[in-house]
């Protein structure tokens, strides 16, 4: 039986994860083609995998990569070794790398403080490199952990609306709908090497406790409930959206670039569809728009949807 996996311009075959991200990112192609993509790489499994995926798609999508590694300066020699590892990886892949070590960061600085300083540096470097995005490796498991953290911390429904594919600060998260097990599978298949951060084992930190002591036990004893938990939070967000009278009606044409953002898709379908919109409608809408076809029509929620030139619009019925 012939292997039908897509060939890259160099003749190498795309892995399933590479192909999935190609379909997702080509909707953004006009924004980064012939530009740089600045990717934050810590040296861990997630960011190293993302680096390899984006490197594999570089010639196909027409961007140039630039890596940024941020050393917070609070983990001593271990962090310095992470930096050396990332620099060596970039040298091997022939990708330019900015290795940045932060100063005057207290050893006991909170995760929120470290994150704030890290993004401050990355966004400044984005402007310096004239890159349209900062690309990071947050995946679906990260999204679930973040939502649970915010639920525990009492941030309300606003806090649950965390981490989109592309946010207002130009942070791009290509892995945001990818379960970590798929990233792990990719890393093993590609024989990748990465660094492990020992602080991720510290369950005194809330995220680590949720990941290891809560979700870890749930995955071990009742793995089938992880999907239920994720989709339940999605439905809470959807059903807590402001009613139509409290929001501006979405324009008739919908940019295909926004098709990965559940809340945006739900709002658009609710205003232009004829049936009651559920999470299944949102999932099917997003699935349709991952098609490599540039122009087609599909039916959903009682409406024919026309996809053309990167835009979606409901068909006007006579």
Offer a concise description of the structure.
With 318 residues, this protein is an alpha/beta fold.
Task: Give your account of this protein's structure.
It is a single chain. The protein has 318 residues and is of the alpha/beta class. The protein has two domains: 16-139 and 161-199, Rossmann fold (3-Layer(aba) Sandwich), CATH 3.40.50; 244-314. It is built from twelve helices and nine strands. The chain has a five-stranded parallel beta sheet. Strand 8 (303-308) and strand 9 (311-314) form a beta hairpin. The termini are far apart. Mean pLDDT is 84; it is low at 243-249.
Task: State the helical fraction.
Answer: 40-55%
Do you know the CATH architecture of the largest domain?
3-Layer(aba) Sandwich
- CATH fold title of the largest domain: Rossmann fold
Q: What is the number of domains? A: 2
Largest sheet: 5 strands, parallel
Give the low-pLDDT segments: 243-249
Please identify the top-level CATH class of the largest domain: Alpha Beta
Task: Give the termini separation.
Answer: 47 Å
Shape: globular
Q: How many runs of DSSP E, i.e. beta strands?
A: 9
Oligomer: single chain
| Mean pLDDT rating | 84
Q: What is the strand arrangement across the widest sheet?
A: 3-2-1-4-5
The H/E string reads HHEHEHEHEHHEHHHEHHEEE
Can you tell me the CATH superfamily of the largest domain? HUPs
Beta-strand fraction estimate: 5-15%
Judged by helices, strands and strand pairing, the structural class is alpha/beta
Number of helices: 12
Radius of gyration: 21 Å
